[in-house]
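ok so for the tutorial part 2 we go from a plain amino acid sequence to predicted structure tokens. step 1 is just haveing the sequence, like this:
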Amino acid sequence: MKVKLQEWSAVAEILSSIAVLATLVFLVFELRQNTDAIRANTYQEMNAVISQVNGIFLDNPEVSAFVARTASGEGELDPHDAIRLRAFISSQYRHADNVYFQYQIGTISRRQMESLLHPIVLNFQRRGRLRDEWLNGADKALLSPDLVTYLEQKIGSQSVAE
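step 2 — the prediction. this is what the tokens look like for a chain of 162 residues:
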């Protein structure tokens, strides 16, 4: 009887080990699926923000007029437009910083990061006041040094024709 009990104990131990292994495999599979879902949601949410901002520009003539007034670096801005421009630049920096952070922690790929930063790069390449602010602005010190390096390379030293 004692031998049979030891045999059953060994079988139970083997089955228990198999169950633990199966549970671990299942958890790894679930973790990968969850990570993929988080990555997809993050990228989708960032694209939704860009679409919202574009919608504001498309739907609001006042915003479009503001963009036109600030597109060149010529002339002085009235105080209201100067405040709006400062807020716009700050939002562009914050968005770029968030995108780059998501890239650094692996939530989005390099291709996705480049795609999300492309409109910002174009804005700072093409729009005179934004370009001047980038070239002369101290706000770059608030951004990740790696992000600044990336943007410096993308924005470049030559203005892109509109």
